[in-house]
């Protein structure tokens, strides 16, 4: 590896680790919020006499909120900075989570979950941009990929909390209010996080950028140590033009194909496992086990992302995960243990695509539009995820579990095809190199070897 960029080739420090942990609070809350509803619906549905369409709307409302909040959050973070919004967005999660405890009808539940989704969506471009712009290139992929790993940690926690509370009368109210607890802890931890020096430099605030660099990296660090990046003053319209427009199309499609089956499974995991033969507490614990396997898959992906490279990892991940869903669809009447094993196989193999959801968009776009790119890709991908989540209970009721899994397999294979055609290689590149439209994958691979 070259040594021409002191900050981009810096060793992993305690600051990087703390920032990665605090920044990953958003994915943790996302996984928690989207998973706890699957368990809570077991009590909410009969309490409010909900139809399958209403169940789907409640399950999808947070995803719709993420669609609305992600792009707005990305635009705001590019305009006003990463640090100023790093804690404000979580205040909405705290307030709306507590308000869910007192909800009295389906409409208000949908509205509150919509607002929570908006706050979660806004946090993604804010936190990932901040982390990407501080991270050394050797560690950028694993640190950003670890974001989605925290999503699954949040999901596991949600299933465990849900299984405990579901045995109490009105336990669903405590389930829906519970995200406020980790949100408060995350807000407190994030206080005092510095602004991105790259963003400050792009805004002409050189002295502030130098002050941050000295604080984080020590005396002698300055903006002169930052690798060069795209120098033109790009605006948000660049996301739909030329080379960046093509990159946005690729990221949006692969991200959508990665999360549509996954979010559908999470929102209605206990119901799907129940239809496949795992019922009661076994369904909830089965969901927790599958979620743990998702986490294992992400860890495997984090280990392989620098060894295999981004392109090879995403193609293999989609292909093997699609095969697991296809087998679930073709053999829905298999034994409960085979069903659980296939779900676990899907969970482990899809991990590569999950971690790349946050690596690719942060590496392929420059500082001026990085937050907007992450936000727009996240927003667009959630359209498909929301539609898929809304249709899951309808599909289970009318098409059956097997056909529903086959549809998920088709979506996953589409992701594999798109990745074969368009996935670039950014391994070993600085942010300046990877965000350049004319980057050269071969040189990046040679440097990383």
From TrEMBL:
Recorded hits in Pfam families, A to Z, give:
Sugar_tr
What keywords are assigned to this protein?
Membrane, Transmembrane, Transmembrane helix, Transport
Q: What are the recorded GO MF terms, alphabetically?
A: transmembrane transporter activity
Q: Which Gene3D superfamilies match?
A: MFS general substrate transporter like domains (1.20.1250.20)
Its membrane topology is listed as: Multi-pass membrane protein
Where's the Major facilitator superfamily (MFS) profile domain?
19-427
Which InterPro entries would you find in this protein's record? Answer: MFS_dom (IPR020846), MFS_sugar_transport-like (IPR005828), MFS_trans_sf (IPR036259), Sugar_transporter_CS (IPR005829)
User: What CDD domains does the record point to?
Assistant: MFS_SV2_like
* Any Gene Ontology CC annotation: plasma membrane
Question: Where does the record say this protein resides?
Answer: Cell membrane
Where does the sequence pass through the membrane? 21-44, 56-77, 84-103, 143-162, 174-193, 248-268, 288-306, 313-331, 337-360, 372-391, 403-423
What is the name listed in the Swiss-Prot or TrEMBL entry for this protein?
MFS transporter
């Amino acid at each position: 590896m070259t040594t021409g960029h002191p900050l981009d080739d810096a060793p992993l420090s305690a600051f990087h680790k703390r920032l990665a942990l605090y920044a990953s609070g958003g994915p943790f809350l996302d996984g928690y919020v989207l998973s706890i509803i699957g368990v809570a619906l077991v009590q909410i549905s009969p309490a409010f006499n909900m139809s399958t369409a209403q169940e789907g709307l409640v399950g999808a409302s947070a995803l719709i909120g993420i669609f609305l909040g992600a792009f707005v959050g990305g635009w705001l973070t590019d305009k006003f900075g990463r640090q100023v919004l790093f804690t404000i967005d979580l205040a909405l999660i705290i307030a709306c989570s507590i308000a869910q405890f007192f909800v009295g009808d389906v409409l208000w539940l949908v509205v509150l979950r919509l607002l929570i989704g908006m706050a979660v969506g806004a946090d993604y471009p804010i936190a990932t941009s901040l982390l990407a712009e501080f991270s050394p290139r050797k560690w950028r992929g694993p640190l950003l990929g670890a974001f989605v790993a925290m999503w699954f940690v949040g999901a596991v926690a949600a299933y465990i909390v849900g299984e405990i509370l579901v045995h109490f009368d009105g336990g669903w109210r405590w389930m829906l209010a519970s995200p406020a607890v980790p949100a408060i802890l995350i807000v407190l931890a994030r206080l005092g996080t510095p602004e991105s020096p790259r963003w400050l430099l792009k805004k002409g605030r050189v002295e502030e950028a130098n002050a941050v660099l000295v604080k984080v990296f020590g005396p002698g660090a300055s903006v002169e140590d930052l690798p060069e990046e795209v120098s033109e003053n790009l605006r948000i319209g660049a996301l739909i033009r030329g080379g960046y427009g093509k990159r946005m199309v690729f990221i949006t499609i692969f991200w959508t194909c990665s999360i549509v089956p996954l979010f559908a499974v999470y929102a209605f995991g206990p119901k799907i496992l129940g239809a496949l033969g795992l019922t009661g507490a076994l369904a909830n614990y089965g969901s927790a086990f599958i979620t743990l396997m998702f986490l294992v898959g992400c860890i495997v992906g984090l280990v392989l992302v620098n060894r295999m490279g981004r392109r090879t990892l995403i193609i293999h991940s989609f292909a093997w995960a699609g095969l697991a869903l296809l087998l679930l669809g073709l053999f829905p009447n298999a034994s409960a243990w085979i069903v659980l094993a296939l779900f676990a196989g899907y969970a482990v193999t899809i991990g590569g695509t999950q971690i790349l959801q946050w690596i690719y968009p942060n590496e392929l776009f420059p500082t001026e539009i990085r937050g907007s790119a992450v936000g727009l890709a996240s927003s667009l991908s959630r359209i498909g995820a929301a539609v898929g989540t809304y249709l899951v209970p309808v599909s289970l009721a009318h098409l059956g579990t097997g056909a529903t899994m086959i549809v998920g397999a088709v979506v996953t294979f589409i992701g594999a095809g798109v990745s074969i055609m368009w996935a670039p290689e950014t391994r070993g590149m600085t942010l300046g190199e990877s965000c350049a439209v004319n980057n050269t994958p071969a040189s990046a691979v040679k440097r990383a070897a």
